[in-house]
Amino acid sequence: MSRVITITSGKGGVGKTTSTANLGTALAMLGAKVAVVDADIGLRNLDVVMGLENRIVYDLVDVLEGRCRLRQALIKDKHFPDLCLLPAAQTRDKDAVSPDDMIALANQLRAEFDYVLIDSPAGIEGGFRNAIAGADEVMIVTTPEVSAVRDADRIIGLVEAFEKGHPRLVINRIKPKMVSRGEMMSIEDVLQILAIELIGVVPDDEQIVTATNRGEVAVLERSSRAGRSFTDIARRIAGEKVPFPALDEEPGMIERFFGMFGRRPRGSER
Amino acid sequence: MSFFDTLFGRRERSSDVARERLLTVLVHDRVKLTPELLEQLKAELSAVIARYVPAADASGIEVTLLRGEASDHIKADIPLRRSSS
Q1: Could you give the CA distance from residue A136 to residue A5 in angstroms, rounded to a whole number?
Q2: Which of A196, A211, A217, B20 has the smallest C-beta neighbourhood within 10 Å, fewest atoms?
Q3: For B1-85, where are the alpha helices, taking DSSP H only?
Q4: How far, in Å, CA of A233 to CA of A137, rounded?
Q5: Is there a contact between A93 and A41 (Cβ–Cβ < 8 Å)?
Q6: Residue B29 is nearest to which of A145, A150, A186, comparing CB atoms?
């Protein structure tokens, strides 16, 4: 049974595209067939985050307007043949797409993939409405900042109004040291305010920047703490019970020890 | 903010400030009471109160949205003029 999951946030710049790319890759690593769809028409970015920008021939709008078949527009990932990207059009705007188009597209993708992850544009306007139209589930990305949490609250209301069920929350870019000093809202603070189910917490990690510089995703790098968190989220999406590890600034000694041999002890993964 | 500021209680922790500000903003967002509507509410409320309580000071009315434990509240604070007789 395939699932269409939209990743959205309200506020821009909180990590929707990074989350989509990492979760898509992590789900593919778990052996699933995954399509990631860039629904940010006119401001496409998922392609560059995944390092696939040079392979684009057709895009989402080309598919909808019948200039190519879906298969022709799907770009195979560099590492995982079962991971495909459907890029957004760069030269069009969101009005080139309707919610009905997105529902039809999602259904077409559903036939070929286990997971369809849709990267939503920021905002609460047409682009966001298009992005959630075909979704079975919604995941909301926020950072522990006043503006991002406020927008997440707004989006949660809209997602529920569109009858997309209860969205699940990713808290991104948390800085454990700042939280322990009382200089950043904690996971508990954010959860208490938003009152939705948490699916994962991703620590702030410079490796996200360096990986993205190269067009790679952090889940492929064993040393990336953010990458490990995204892998945990992917496993939770797949239905595994993965414990929420305590947020430490640095990996512990045991983890480092096992890290040298390229594997981690069971149950202490994060 | 340094450790000593926290120790001597000089400043509130910024995460607490963030949480409080966020809660206030969200009460307003969720109630969908815009600043214009709030002004209108104050004007109408003071007109009604003045009809029953002439000593009510319409200019001093304060309406605030409060976040409670279980539910949120609208609190209207209307000062009364003390008769100088």
Answers
A1: 6
A2: B20
A3: 3-7, 14-31, 35-52
A4: 14
A5: yes
A6: A150
- Band of pLDDT at residue A15, cut at 50, 70 and 90: very high
Digitized pLDDT (tens) for each residue of chain B, 85 residues in all = 456 555 566 678 999 999 999 998 898 888 888 888 888 998 898 889 889 998 888 788 888 888 776 788 888 898 888 876 5
Q: How far is CA A260 from CA A205, A223, B4, in A?
A: 20, 10, 39
ipTM beyond cut 0.90: no
Q: What is the pTM of this model?
A: 0.84
B1 to chain A, any CB pair closer than 8 A? The answer is yes
How far, in Å, CA of B16 to CA of A183, rounded?
Answer: 8
Tens digits of per-residue pLDDT, A123-164? 999 999 999 999 999 999 999 999 999 999 999 999 999 999
Quote the distance between the C-alpha of residue B38 and its chain's center: 11
Distance to chain B for A22, nearest Cα, Å: 29
List residues of A whose CB lies inside 8 A of any B CB. 145-146, 149-150, 153-154, 157, 179, 182-186, 189, 193
CB A168 within 8 A of CB A140: yes
Bridging pattern class, strands A115-119 and A3-8: parallel
Contacts of A186 in chain B (CB under 8 A): 15
Residue A184 near residue B63, CB atoms below 8 Å? no
Pairing relation of β-strands A83-86 and A75-76? antiparallel
Chain A and chain B share a number of CB contacts under 8 A equal to 40
Which SS3 state, helix, strand or coil, does residue A257 take?
helix
User: Which residue from A119, A9, A105 is spatially nearest to A61, judged by alpha carbons?
Assistant: A105
